[in-house]
Predict the 3D structure of the following.
Amino acid sequence: MKPICLLAWFLVLAVPNAPEAAIAYFNNARQVQIVQPDRQNFFIVDEEIWSHSRPDLGDLRLYDGESPVQYLLSEQRAGISSEEVEARILNLGSVAGHTEFDLDAEKLATYDRIRLRLDAKDFVVTASVAGANALGEKSSTALTPSTLYDFTSEQLGSNSVLKLPPSSFRYLHIKLSPGILPRQVKGAAIYNLREQQASWTKTGSCSAPQQKQRTTIIVCSVPPKVPLDRIAFQVAPGQVNFHRIVSVQNPQGTEEARGEISRIRVNRAGTLVNTEDLAINVAGRSGQFTISIDNGDNPPLAIVEVQPLSLERRVYFDPQGKASLTLYYGDEKLPAPVYDYARFFRLEASPAEAQLAGGAHNPQYAGRPDDRPWSERHTGILWSVMILAVIALAVLAVRGLRPAAEQ
């Protein structure tokens, strides 16, 4: 065999094969109890699964005996707004002290939100909306009114979004209560917002708040490998009209997330603004972290509880009449599956929730064989072959040069 061919043969042996799934390779197993086997089912990923599987959950496998069962792993996120489309403003003016104008919604078939761009500060106004399919149509349809506000002076935030029922009118007539002039209306956009709410799973815990000068300090921890996606704050109901900057730092003191919490209950000239936002989003992490709330010159918040949350992950599957399946996990080398079930998944109206038994060591576990590349398992042989190939090539080169030297 020629040296080059021999070397190429050894290099082919060095290429590893992709790991395949086998029950004996999973370290952990759990029974999945199915109450309604005649419909789509799901179970919720819990701390036990997070702690003993890969961080991406790619090593989860469902089995009916020895037969694999396809599934879809789904994050229960909130609905995401569609891309905003600019709406043309028409007939902008003032009528009896009220700013009024029309919006041309031709660019979007259906919508349920209007975002106004207002060049104004410190105001509270009510926006009434009527929909029609022709400008100036007398039989227009009154839609849900909205309250717009800006509390820059009080540092309590702002809102310039009008919420509507799902609508498809070509034109929208908007009338603002006194407080906004026509020249302060700079633009408008329409969009849809899917109203599916995110689902959260409680994880970890937080210590009691401690005050350090103008800052409230809270130390929290989340179990290893469990992702942290959100932090929810419970503030005493009697404390209102506040707006605070919240910072999350890792143990080294580096800021990893920043957000705002607020609760507003303000009545201005008969218009009530009642809103609150007591949670911040965090890019997934685990372990210990510190929360800092900047109170500025204001008194500390009366914090009742701080709860770390993980975005709920669900595993959807079709039990095909089976009363129980087995979930296996804990194989670091196994790649995530690619299932047709996931590609063509359709969420049914009322999927049933299956229950997970306690986690346990897989009694069939034997561990993977040594599947390292041949080159890693036989480095001595590979180097010997490479050295011999180099020597052989050198000998051939010398022989090729000898006739030329003799001439």
Q: What stands out?
A: The longest helix spans residues 379-406. The chain is about 15% helix and 45% strand.
